[in-house]
Amino acid sequence: MTIPVISDIFGWLFKQFYDLSQQNYLLTLFLFALVMKVLLLPFGIKQQKNSIKQARLRPKEMAIRNKYKGRNDKATQQKLSEEIMKLYQEENVNPMSGCLPMLIQLPILFALYGVIINPITYISSHASSVQKLTAAFKAAKISGTGTQIDIIRAVTRTPEKIAAHFKGANFDVIKTELTSIGKSFKIGNLDLIEEASFSWPLVLIPILTFVFAFASTKIIRKFTYQPSTGDASTQASMGMMDWMMPLLSVYISFQFAAAIAVYWMFQNILSAAQQILLYKLYPVPVITEEQIREAELQLKGKSKQHSKKKDAVAADDYVIDDYDKTVEKDKSGSHQKKQDGIMSSRKAGISPKVKKMYAIGKKLHARKKI
User: Fold this and answer.
1) Is the peptide bond before 201 cis (omega within 30 degrees of 0)?
2) What's the rounded Cα separation, in Å, for the pair 118 and 105?
3) By CB neighbour count within 10 A (0-12 exposed, 13-18 middle, 19+ buried), where does 143 fall?
4) Distance between CA 328 and CA 322 in Å, rounded?
5) Using one digit for the tens of pLDDT, what is the confidence trace for 246-284?
């Protein structure tokens, strides 16, 4: 798939890396994947920051969920959803905003794919001959999906078949350049222009594709905030996805040239590395059971912090009242009762501020007595 402007920009960039790497296609794929990951990094940062906001609201969200726990009727579930949405609106957090960066990246990924499967258009000097080569490829009835990588393979392996149907006089020049490009796909005995198969060493492609895809999924999951409730069905679905996506990658690796699968491996490796980096730079707060219990108390109007404030005020009042009583008793001349008052104040667990007030009052009382 080609996207106007975007594909042209990416194609030009791909050509620069191809020349810079001295026509090493593997290194070109890696450099291209690395730069694309850097360009898309702002979207990853936005997603991570949104995860932090959601994590901070997690205790309040769980308090609401626990409020309706065990009640699965439709009316209750609707009320639960309404209260959670109200919570997010009050805190100005959009739980779906993390999907926006992914949607923005889709056309970019399509454009990247179009650049990779069309090397004749973007890294050769014979882009104007693509239609003639495609028509010759189809007329020769050569097996393959008809991508430009398939055409390069056909020109390199069976040039006579393409030449027989090519409508033009410069086929030999085109063949020389495309053959050179085809050689750049080779890594020892592994030819990235070929499709994955069960023959050695091409069998390494689907195996490595699965390994990197599976490992990347696990790593990204570990270093990403998971807003799910953690119920059994959700965990089962996540576990199934951990296997389905890598297996899908393996299937795709058998359908296209190995170069596409290699690029996908680089993307998986870099995606995992990026998520670890974002996790370190923008750590998601860890939510504890105590925070959830505190949120439940706040929801019920029985917050521990509120109770502590009430207890502190009550304690201060008690100490002051106790001191006043002590002074009144001391006026009657009973020294023992004064000591009892001091001891009762100490037992009350007075704060440093009240202790200071008590000391000042004691000095004033001593002066009056003199």
Assistant:
1) yes
2) 20
3) exposed
4) 10
5) 888 888 888 877 888 898 899 999 999 999 999 999 998
pLDDT tens digits, one per residue of 45-59: 988 888 888 888 888
For residue 158, give the DSSP letter. -
Residue written as tokens 């009727």?
73
How far apart are the C-alpha atoms of 159 and 137, rounded to whole Å? 10
Place of tokens 């794919």: 113
pLDDT confidence band for 324 (50 / 70 / 90): very low
CA triplet 144, 196, 8: central angle to 5 degrees? 65
Neighbour tally for 106: CB within 10 Å: 9
Identify the three-state secondary structure at position 257. strand
Q: Tell me which residue of 274, 273, 217, 270 sits closest to 246, measured CA to CA.
A: 217
Domain ranges of the chain: 305-369
Distance from C-alpha of 45 to C-alpha of 42, rounded to nearest angstrom: 5
- Rounded Cα distance, 133 and 34, in Å: 31
Strand boundaries in the chain, DSSP class E? 186-187, 190-191
Confidence check: pLDDT of 353 > 80: no
Higher per-residue pLDDT: 349 or 216: 216
Q: Which residues pair with 187 in a beta bridge?
A: 190
* Residue 137 neighbours by CB distance under 10 Å: 23
103 or 326, higher pLDDT: 103
CA separation for the pair 37, 274 (Å, rounded): 8
Q: Where are the alpha helices (DSSP H) in 166-288?
A: 171-184, 204-222, 232-255, 258-281
C-alpha closest to that of 28 among 257, 192, 194, 178: 192
Local structure of 295: helix, strand or coil: helix
d(CA 204, CA 176): 29
> How many residues are recorded in the chain?
370
> What is the predicted pLDDT for the residue at 323?
42
| 333 phi and psi angles, rounded to 5 deg | 95, 10
- Could you tell me the CA-to-CA distances from 362 to 323, 329, 348, 358 in Å, in that order? 9, 14, 17, 6
Amino acid symbol at 313: V
